[in-house]
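Sequence in, structure out. Go.
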Amino acid sequence: YEESTFGRNLRKGYSYFPVNKLAAFPGDIDSLTSQISRQLKLKKSYIKTQSLLLCMFKIIINENGILEIEEDQNKSMLKLYPDKTLFYQRVLKALKNLPMWSPAVLHQKYVKSHFNITISMEKGLLRINLSSINQVILDPNLKLISSATLIKYRI
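Output:
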């Protein structure tokens, strides 16, 4: 019996493999957008003066449903544009304060799940794009992009 590459990778803790069910935020992507937008707590005057703000992270939702930041892709951007630091700090804090997710499932076991998450704001419109790095057969109705107007919220 020869162990498959998939079996070796699973045993080693790698999690870039197909899953039966993706990790999910309680509710849906719109709930995630709403939660983050409430936590940003940016002043209307700040929002109105910003043309485009963008933060990108690689995240893991671990076997217990806890979000971990695997890779912060914003460091070089902040060196070039230090005026974007406030938005970055608020987004980072909002991500760290999110409630637990439902973890991904593979063969009836909870497993780590990897995502790229991009959070952008342009003229008061907050957009979140969540893309899975794990391969999965997706439900065509599954929504992974959401937007919300921040001006609606007490900021």
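Check: Residues 148-155 have pLDDT under 50 and may be disordered. The two ends are 60 Å apart (CA to CA).
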